[in-house]
């Protein structure tokens, strides 16, 4: 039987012949079939996966050196382009669309011999926190099917939760990698804005979007980051900053300075059990000799409003390209003029939440309201960035919950979009300020559901963040 722990161990087993890529492929395809009812995958690339696995086995046996991700099975959220494979953003408006090129991130994975196993379900265009806004239907939480997977990268989280692939890519505009990871008990990591090229990632809110990684092993995640990171001539926002080497042993005895926000842990919306788990963690770190301090963060109540003003504004512009003319869905209703064609195609092609956001975004950008909403939210974003900079002058990491509650019941938040938005309170800060953040699956609630500890570091300090994450996870064992 095939068992997976980490890329390092898998590669050792491939080298000594204990397993093969073919065997691993069969295992994952079986797992996917066994969990099909959870609805995590949109498309599984079955035949190619088998072929690629056999080809890699043959190359390895012929003595060819292995790529860094040789035979690593990776699922990708259905907003990330993989050339000649369907790409729909879980939207009717992109039904039958195939990617005409691969995302830079995907190209880099493939260059290192990763195998892309399938595309994963999500909220339409990444808009949502439950994966219920998908044209393919909701993704079920594997531990309790009456609950949601979280979102918007719900398929990615459940694919990892159920062992259907080794790692998964998601996208994180306001928490979409970290929150489903928190709900499903896996690791969810969002790098700094600009660390990984967004070329080939379907745009939701371009100044927030970032490809993230879900998995079960920190060293795996560090390796994927290393492969995908770096400048890209197709994305001028991709940073040139070099990524230092991941050396977790280095930090094992080091003492760090952790900050937590008083306002975050005393927030009325926070489940008291989650609050006390985080407080206990802080105590434990203090007892180990780290500096752990409460800092006041009185801007916390502004993060969700600023996030939803700015992201809907950007979305209303980004989604203008789906017009029924150039590509994607076109309404069959006979039109009288061009604007009828636009209206019918967009009205039929977009789901309810996406329409709500396009309208909200158009409103906050409209002439009479621009200054009252959009400009004001930009000012809040600037204040947040300044504040975060000051905090990281004094601290190495910030500790926060990932979500104020454990996985919602299906349908629970659908009637009240504001309640759904407010639950993003702990994740959007990292996207508003561009810093990296990770959700670590270290807690279990008395309702038996997992939840995570969220850790943030200063911009482009992903490597120290991953190193401390490894330590925090190891302490749980
Ligand atoms: N829940 C947030 C939203 O709906 C996060 C989305 C995301 O990160 N893609 O906007």
Principal-axes geometry comes out as: globular
**Which fold does the CATH topology refer to?**
Amidase signature (AS) enzymes
Distance from N terminus to C terminus (CA atoms, Å) equals 24 Å
Q: What's the helix-strand series?
A: HHEHEHEHEHEEHEHHEHHHHEHHEEH
* Helix count from the secondary structure assignment: 16
As a percent range, the share of strand residues is 5-15%
Task: Give the spatial strand order of the biggest sheet.
Answer: 1-3-2-4-6-5-10-11-9-7-8
**What small-molecule ligands were found?**
glutamine
- CATH class wording: Alpha Beta
Number of structurally distinct domains: 1
Largest sheet, if any?
A: 11 strands, mixed
**What's the Cα radius of gyration?**
22 Å
Fraction of residues in helices?
25-40%
Characterise the protein shown here.
The chain has 477 residues and is of the alpha/beta class. The chain has a single domain (1-477), classed as Amidase signature (AS) enzymes (Alpha-Beta Complex). 39% of the residues lie in helices and 13% in strands. The protein has an eleven-stranded mixed beta sheet with strand order 1-3-2-4-6-5-10-11-9-7-8, sandwiched between helices. The protein is globular. The two termini are 24 Å apart. The mean pLDDT is 97. The structure holds glutamine. Glutamine binds at residues 126-129, 152, 171-176, 204, 311, 424. Glutamine (GLN) is lined by residues 126-129, 152, 171-176, 204, 311, 424.
């Amino acid at each position: 039987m095939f068992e997976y722990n980490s890329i390092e161990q898998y590669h050792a087993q491939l080298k000594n012949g204990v397993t093969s890529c073919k065997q691993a492929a069969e295992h994952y395809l079986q797992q996917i079939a066994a969990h099909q009812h959870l609805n995590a995958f949109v498309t599984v690339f079955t035949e190619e996966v088998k072929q690629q696995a056999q080809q890699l086995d043959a190359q390895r046996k012929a003595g060819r050196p292995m790529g860094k991700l040789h035979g690593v099975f990776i699922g990708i959220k259905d907003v990330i382009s993989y050339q000649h494979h369907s790409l729909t953003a879980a939207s009717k408006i992109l039904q039958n669309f195939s990617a005409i090129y691969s995302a830079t991130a995907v190209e880099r994975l493939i260059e290192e011999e990763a195998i892309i196993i399938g595309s994963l379900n999500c909220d339409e265009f990444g808009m949502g926190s439950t994966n219920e806004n998908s044209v393919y239907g909701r993704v079920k939480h594997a531990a309790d099917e009456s609950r949601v997977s979280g979102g918007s990268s719900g398929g990615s989280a459940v694919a990892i939760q159920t062992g259907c692939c080794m790692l998964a890519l998601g996208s994180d505009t306001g928490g979409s990698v970290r929150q489903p990871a928190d709900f499903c008990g896996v690791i969810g990591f969002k790098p700094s804005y600009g660390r990984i090229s967004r070329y080939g990632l379907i745009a939701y809110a371009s100044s927030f979007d970032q490809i993230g990684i879900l998995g079960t092993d920190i060293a795996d995640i560090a390796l994927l980051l290393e492969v995908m990171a770096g400048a890209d001539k197709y994305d001028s926002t991709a940073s040139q900053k070099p990524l230092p080497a991941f050396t977790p042993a280095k930090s094992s005895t080091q003492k760090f300075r952790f900050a937590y926000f008083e306002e975050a842990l005393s927030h009325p919306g926070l489940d008291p059990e989650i609050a006390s788990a985080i407080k206990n963690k802080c105590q434990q770190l203090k007892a180990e000799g780290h500096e752990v301090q409460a800092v006041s963060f009185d801007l916390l109540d502004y993060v969700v409003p600023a996030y939803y003003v700015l992201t809907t504004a950007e979305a209303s512009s980004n989604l203008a390209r789906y017009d029924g003319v150039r590509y994607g869905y076109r309404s069959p209703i006979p039109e009288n003029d061009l604007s009828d064609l636009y209206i019918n195609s967009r009205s039929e092609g977009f789901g309810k939440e996406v329409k709500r956001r396009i309208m909200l975004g158009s409103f906050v950008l409209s002439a009479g309201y621009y200054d009252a909403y959009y400009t004001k939210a930009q000012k809040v974003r600037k204040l947040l960035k300044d504040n975060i900079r000051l905090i990281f002058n004094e601290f190495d990491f910030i500790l926060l919950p990932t979500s104020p509650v454990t996985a919602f019941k299906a349908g629970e938040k659908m009637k009240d979009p504001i309640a759904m938005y407010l639950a993003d309170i702990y994740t959007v800060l990292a996207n508003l300020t561009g810093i990296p953040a990770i959700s670590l699956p270290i807690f279990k609630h008395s309702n038996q559901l997992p939840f995570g500890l969220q850790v943030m570091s200063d911009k482009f300090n992903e490597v120290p963040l991953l190193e401390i994450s490894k330590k925090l996870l190891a302490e749980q064992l």
